[in-house]
From TrEMBL:
Protein name, entry field: 7-carboxy-7-deazaguanine synthase
Protein family: Belongs to the radical SAM superfamily. 7-carboxy-7-deazaguanine synthase family.
Organism name: Novosphingobium decolorationis
Enzyme Commission (EC) number: 4.3.99.3
Function: Catalyzes the complex heterocyclic radical-mediated conversion of 6-carboxy-5,6,7,8-tetrahydropterin (CPH4) to 7-carboxy-7-deazaguanine (CDG), a step common to the biosynthetic pathways of all 7-deazapurine-containing compounds.
Span of domain Radical SAM core: 24-243
């Protein structure tokens, strides 16, 4: 059984779109958004996957969400059938933190490959959770987004050295760091050096949930990328569709 986020009550957030961030930006993709997260970023744009009524972890919006309207449980085979019905053969498992449901995801991806053959499977993770042994060999690309201090998460939860080292050693992994201020680059440089992360596998992305904020931060963030040999990634889906579910 998988626990999914919803677009509307009881409607799972499974959709076809363009990958908006990171190494695969612009590529047609099918998305499956999982519910629940082990972290709580102040600026999270999918807080409806974890900040349910009664959760007092801080968030910029100060909103909480009714669990019954924003979460739905489906059998793995049913999710596989829904994904197989969509055209893109690039699957992005996102959240929330999808690796919290690694065993069920492994069963879903295996069922999907039986239905449609080979898929390119990406998983978006905050980098603090190890992939389940059954899921790991089914993943083609890890999009790892370690949460910096400005996210509001304590480093003891968000930046686990052995996990970051394992992802850094995995050639399937790309790293995406969310940048809110110029000074955030110092934390990135420290993590890159500590874990020997190749600059060519590092993407810096402006924090923001609207085009104006993203463009303003992109002006100086692009210079930092050029200076340090990192890649720049925008948030394409925000520019195209805004901060909306199912995009």
């Amino acid at each position: 059984m998988l626990t999914l986020a919803t677009t509307t009550p009881s409607e799972p957030e499974i959709f076809a779109s363009l990958q908006g961030e990171g190494a695969s930006v612009g590529k047609p993709s099918t998305f499956v958004r999982l519910s629940r997260c082990n972290l709580a970023c102040h600026w999270c744009d999918t807080a409806y996957t974890w900040r349910f009524s009664g959760d007092n972890r801080p968030h910029t919006d100060g909103l909480d969400f009714a669990r019954e309207a924003n979460q739905v449980k489906l059998e793995e085979a049913e999710v596989a059938q829904m994904v197989a019905a969509l055209k893109p053969d690039r699957l992005v498992l996102t959240g929330g933190e999808p690796l919290l449901q690694g065993a069920a995801l492994a069963r879903m991806v295996a069922a999907l490959k039986e239905l449609r053959g080979e898929f390119h499977v990406e998983i978006e993770t905050n980098g603090s959770v190890a992939p389940h042994p059954a899921l790991d060999p089914l993943i083609d690309q890890f999009n790892v987004s370690p949460k910096l201090a400005h996210s509001g998460n304590p480093a003891s939860l968000a930046l686990i050295p052995e996990r970051l080292a394992a992802y850094a050693a995995d050639p399937r992994a790309f790293f995406k760091f969310v940048i809110a201020e110029r000074s955030d680059i110092e934390e990135v440089l420290g993590l890159v050096a500590a874990h020997s992360i190749l600059p060519s596998r590092v993407f810096l992305m402006p924090e923001g949930r609207d085009s104006a904020t993203l463009r303003a931060r992109a002006r100086w963030l692009g210079d930092l990328c050029a200076e340090h040999g990192f890649n720049f990634t925008d948030r394409l889906h925000i520019h195209l569709w805004g901060d909306t579910r199912g995009t």
